[in-house]
Amino acid sequence: MRLFVADDRLADGVSELTDGDQQIVRVAAPDLQQARRVRARIRAADDVAVILDITVAVAGDFRSAQRVLGPLDDGDARTVHYAGTVDGLAGLIADIATAGVADGVTLIPAASQQDVARVGRDVLGRLGSLEQPRAS
């Protein structure tokens, strides 16, 4: 699973936190089902990594994150939104990979004060621990 963060300072607008050499196509979808359909259509035509945009609000608890995300308007319905904790976001990203919804994600901050680079690094740490085999 590839992980990108939005970065307005770069020409392409994203910075990759993982290593990948396959060309990417970023997509936005209102929900995960639509994202899966878009990925299937793109992958049928080209051998690229499909990267799903996710607008994120991450905090210590759901209510705090929900306040950062705020109410959604009609324009916000074009991307998947997540409000919650780092652990929950890592779980969502793991599920996206397992279900074949996308080959990676781009984390987009829901608010300017959200440090998505830090959130992305924290998520990578959690994803690494999710991949570790569990002792019986």
User: In the residues, how many domains can be counted?
Assistant: 1
Query: How widely separated are the two ends?
Result: 26 Å
- Ranges where pLDDT stays below 50 over 5 or more residues in a row are none
Mean pLDDT, rounded to whole units? 88
What string, H for helix and E for strand, traces the elements in order? EEEHEHEHEH
Major beta-sheet overview: 6 strands, mixed
Shape: globular
Beta strands, count: 6
Helix coverage percent: 25-40%
Number of helices: 4
Mind explaining what this structure looks like?
- The structure is a single chain.
- The protein is built from four helices and six strands, in the order E-E-E-H-E-H-E-H-E-H.
- By secondary structure, the protein is of the alpha/beta class.
- The protein has one domain.
- Strands 1, 2, 3, 4, 5 and 6 form a six-stranded mixed sheet that branches.
- Helix 3 packs across helix 4.
- The protein is globular and about 40 Å long.
- It starts with a strand and ends in a 5-residue tail after the last helix.
- 28% of the residues are buried.
- The mean pLDDT is 88.
